[in-house]
């Protein structure tokens, strides 16, 4: 994939986001970091303080189970994080901060981001890559994106 000069690239997962601008050309990308976010989001088990609510015996003697589904606080925070990133993208798009955007994220995070995209962001997204590259060095991100 060619990453044109001044194209922006968002590399994100549910906890960390990196926002770049390509200062190179389509053949030799040179991603420069413009912004970085990191969200402290411990595992769900570390965020819970209580056992599930009421329980009842299941028919057929299968034991007891909760009458309420448990809230996954970790997943909930990842959704909030994606909404904050989408809000930043909206602000940037409306202010003319980018004309083209490539989004690189795991499939679940991509789906969460899409729920919150503003129409101006949608219009400027030129590619989405369903990969988790947020922990890779920038040179590796450049290589992997330009190879797709």
Q: Which sheet architecture does the biggest sheet show?
A: 5 strands, mixed
Q: What would CATH call the architecture?
A: 2-Layer Sandwich
Total separate domains: 1
Percent strand equals: 15-25%
- Number of helical elements: 5
CATH class: Alpha Beta
**CATH homologous superfamily assignment:** eRF1 domain 2
Q: Compute the number of strand runs.
A: 7
Mean pLDDT: 85
Structural class: alpha/beta
| CATH topology type | Nucleotidyltransferase, domain 5
The dominant shape is: globular
Low-confidence stretches: none
SSE succession: EEEHEEHEHHEH
C-alpha Rg (nearest Å): 20 Å
For the biggest β-sheet, the strand order reads 3-2-1-6-7
Task: Tell me briefly what this model is.
The protein has 148 residues and is of the alpha/beta class. 35% of the residues lie in helices and 24% in strands.
Folded structure, characterized:
- The chain has five helices and seven strands.
- It is α/β, with parallel strands linked by helices and 148 residues long.
- The chain has one domain (8-37, 74-147): 2-Layer Sandwich (Nucleotidyltransferase, domain 5).
- The strands form two sheets. A five-stranded mixed β-sheet has the order 3-2-1-6-7, sandwiched between helices. A two-stranded antiparallel ribbon has the order 4-5.
- A hairpin with a 3-residue loop joins strand 1 (8-12) and strand 2.
- Helix 2 (73-94) crosses helix 3 (107-116).
- It starts with 7 loop residues before the first strand and ends with a helix.
